[in-house]
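Handout, section B. The chain below has 210 residues.
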Amino acid sequence: MEEKKEILKELGEHLPYSIFGVITGLVLLGILSFIGVLVGGEERLPVASEELFHIFHPVHMLLSACVTTAMFWKHETRFVKALIIGVVGSVGLCGMSDILLPFMGGTLLGIKMHLHVCILEHPGIILPFLTVGLFVGFLIPGVIEKSTQYSHSMHVLVSSMASILYLASFGFTGWMHHSGTIFIITILAVMIPCCISDIVFPLILTRREE
């Protein structure tokens, strides 16, 4: 019962940051896409989106590892356990938000999507960011007040941009003409995995001391 109350409390505190992150991500990517079409033409958009995806996706892995590790470390200081939870929570759960759920969303809408798993195809890009994220996750709870809320807001913002970039890069090139549908896909792709990774997953696995 105490763990459920803690989870609900953390979800309530993180909700405004999550909503702000998704909306801001949509607006920023709309502006970037508009500029990209003006400069390079619409046919250039998938290539530019893929290049940007390989920036935002590794940064997302860093932030995901950071906030998941920090959330667990704030409640239980067991190094190996925190390390495992940070890796699984970032690569496994929140990796879904950038790739798997956008892929499924586009496919369900009849778009021919390409499944691109970045950590398998470009591990040299992902692993350094993941390592730094884990390291920082052990440091920030005692340094920055409400660090997990701030890092979660940045995490959601970057994740929403990575999700839309994946759609634009690997099949859903005309995403701006389906902004309402993309908004729903992004909400599901970002909010569910990232809140599970940042909040529910580490808190469920926390063993409280007597």
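Note. Residues 2-37+44-204 form one domain. Compare this with the example in section A.
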